[in-house]
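Next comes one such specimen:
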Amino acid sequence: MAREVCQRVGGKAYIRGSIASLGTQYVLGLKAVSCQDGNTLAQQLVTTARKEKVLAALDQATSKLRVRLGESLASVQKFDVPLEEATTSSLDALTAFSLGRRALATEGERAAIPYFKRAIELDPNFALAYTGLGTAYANLRESDLAKENYQKAYDLRSRVSAREQFAISAYYYNDVTGELDKADQTYELYAKAYPRNWVPHNNLGGNYAALGQWDNALAEVREAARLNPDSGIALGALVECDARVGRYQDAKDTYQQAVSRGLDYSDLHYFRYAVAFLEGDGAEMQRQHDWAAGKPGREDVLLSTQSDTEAYAGHLARGRELSRRATESAHNAGENETAAKRELNDAIREVEFGYPQLARDEAASACV
């Protein structure tokens, strides 16, 4: 399967890894295999006597394999940050972090947070784990918690590889200092240095979206989705951008693509609901509402959206009831900042409907 995937994406080789115990030692093997004919291009074996030294041994094997594959010594030295610095010296922390990344892409932020927290518990200097946790909170609109973790990652940025330095710096400018121009410049350099990485395109698209530059945003998130079609985050952003520019069928097609890949990311359902609203498709709106029911960290999103829908139709009492439930759901999920934002949204709506005192009450409650 690895060889088939390698051929489909136009790769030249893929790396096979193995680890086995031999008495009291661990034997690690790396083998570079040609995608075209399956022949072994280079291989490297290393041993270590302790589990705690597995990552260091893997780092040693990787550097030697890169040289055997023809990478220049100067290039290896330039991009050869020790693995225990670029990630972590703890194999268990790395495992937790990897599970968090997988959960973030396929299930959403709420499922990923415990893994990132566990990785940080195991290694408090794990910069990328702070980045993952910050991203999860940012996507949940918990901006204070996102800033806190992005700041910690930024303080540890000297311990990561060049690629991760790009990401950490961009997140810092984006969410901590608010310097979008510096964030955009960093994302552009990031994308140029690592053209197969989907993250800078996705996040640059998000910044264009924040500025209302939807055509530019669409181009970037489309490239992100092409580079990583298994990311619920990238496909969710593409659904939104297609909907924003009126490409409703494209948005629906992308949503179905995500569903067929088993992706269950919240924004996919939120923006599919939005397209259904714009098309007057009540049955689909109800399906998306039913999907979110009872799911912590997801239910409040669709409840809030449905409350706006009811208010738009003139059913203000029903809208208020759904808003109350959305706020409670966010509180129950531990998303207090999100809950406050739900109340502020309600306050704005009360003003628009001519109820200034109710708006003041909602705003005051949000500030408690």
The radius of gyration is 23 Å. The chain has 20 helices and three strands.
